[in-house]
Design brief:
- The protein is α+β, with helices and mostly antiparallel strands.
- Helices cover 24% and strands 20% of the residues.
- It is built from twelve helices and 16 strands.
- Strands 1-2-12-8-14-6-5-3-4 form a nine-stranded mixed beta sheet.
- Strand 1, helix 3 and strand 2 form a beta-alpha-beta unit.
- The longest helix has 17 residues.
- The protein is globular, with a radius of gyration of 24 Å.
- It starts with a helix and ends in a 20-residue tail after the last strand.
């Protein structure tokens, strides 16, 4: 009997040396192995009815990096009123769009091109997700959100994107380097949001794309301890609602309805409001708007200087600014010399501010701004397997 006890004891020693015990404290962690946000009650986000005037929007929300929900703000958009599957098939069925093959975000799978009419035939029974720049032929079914109609916003517009699927779409926990107004044209989406300051405590372990690989349906609080006490906001956007998400706010989005369509407007952050642009009567129609990638390139260059806390040498720019999909270094020696106007071998803030949009766009060789990484990080997947750079909102 004593020998049997010794053998049994030895077996347990071996077992525990291979499989260390999980402490009761770990098992009792609030939210452990539960959906994102289960660890504590959500804070309440600000909301207003409709879009505020541009000056109010900038003063109350934009310059303070404060998210806000605009209840019913897009309910009168033609898209919100008219975009049934039948309408889209009849009006825009021949247009081509990019479609992801899965609804759970996977940045290593390629998207596929198809006509809208073919997507509409299959999306209810397929794990497809239409994510693309909205074809310009469809823009006239939208309005420019009142809050960004002047003040400088429209000159910094980066993209207008459509997100269309049935229920079950799910993004990574991630952040964006652009400002965002997202509008629900159909259906509902649930948002997990973290403000700018607290987002700095989230480890984006995929810094080639500013996202965290945590399983948002089953959060491992042992592996991701920074999520144990993170304050967060919970928002459910219904059809007709819009939300402003400032750049740098971490967020994760899931859809619940059988059919959901969202449209978002992305623009580059700005420090000051141009009041004169609100009194010159030069408001454009939405179909006359253009994207300005040069402003986002400028913003990213300035962000790199901020992170290094000093002027940047050629090596600094050359090694840190890459395509996140291919790893291509985007700043050549010739590009650097074009930025270094005083020829001192260092790039300073004023030199970046003086660059024209045309010069900036030439320097970055037309790389999609969303695919520019300023930490020298890139996806390890082959270029032909890299998906487009429009991250799930």
């Amino acid at each position: 009997m004593a020998a049997e006890k010794i053998i049994m004891y030895s077996s347990w020693v071996i077992f525990y040396s291979i499989c260390p015990a999980v402490s009761s404290n770990d098992v009792a962690l609030p939210g452990h192995l539960m959906p994102l946000g289960s660890h504590q009650a959500a804070d309440t986000i600000a909301f207003v009815d409709g879009f505020p005037q541009p000056e109010q929007f900038f003063d109350m929300f934009d310059k303070n990096s404060k998210a806000v929900v605009f209840r019913g703000a897009c309910k009168d958009f033609t898209a919100t009123r008219m975009w049934s599957d039948e309408f889209l098939r009849n009006e825009y069925g021949q247009l081509q769009v990019s479609v992801d093959k899965v609804k759970e975000e996977n940045r290593y799978l390629p998207s596929m091109k198809m006509k809208i009419k073919d997507f509409l035939e299959a999306y209810h029974n397929a794990s497809w997700y239409m994510i693309d720049t909205l074809p310009k032929e469809m823009w006239h079914d939208l309005d420019i959100p009142l809050s960004i109609r002047c003040g400088g916003y429209l000159k910094r517009l980066q993209d207008i994107v459509i997100w269309f699927s049935n229920k079950g779409s799910k993004s990574h926990l991630h952040l964006d380097t652009v400002e965002n107004i997202n509008c629900m044209i159909a259906g509902r989406k649930d948002w997990f949001l973290v403000n700018l300051e607290n987002s700095k405590n989230i480890v984006m372990d995929h810094d080639e794309g500013d996202y965290c690989s945590v399983d948002v349906e089953k959060v491992d609080m042992i592996k991701y301890p920074f999520l144990r006490k993170i304050p967060w906001y919970n928002v459910s956007l219904e059809q007709g609602d819009c939300i402003y998400v400032p750049h740098g706010w971490a967020h994760q989005v899931s859809s619940q309805s059988e059919r959901n369509i969202a449209i978002n407007f992305w623009w580059t952050s700005m420090d000051t409001f141009n009041y004169s642009s609100c009194s010159d009567g030069s408001l454009k129609s939405i179909v006359d708007l253009n994207f300005t990638p040069g402003e986002q390139y400028r913003f990213q260059l300035l962000q790199l200087l901020t992170s290094t806390k000093e002027p940047c040498s050629f090596q600094c720019l050359h090694s840190n600014i890459v395509s996140e999909h291919t790893g291509k270094k985007l700043i050549s020696r010739e590009d650097f010399n074009g930025i270094d106007s005083n020829n001192n071998g260092l790039i300073e803030r004023d030199e970046i501010l003086q660059l024209s949009l045309e010069t900036l766009e030439n320097i970055f060789d037309g790389e999609e701004p969303g695919a520019v990484n300023i930490r020298g990080k890139f996806s390890s997947s082959p270029p032909e397997q890299a998906v487009h750079s429009k991250d799930e909102l």
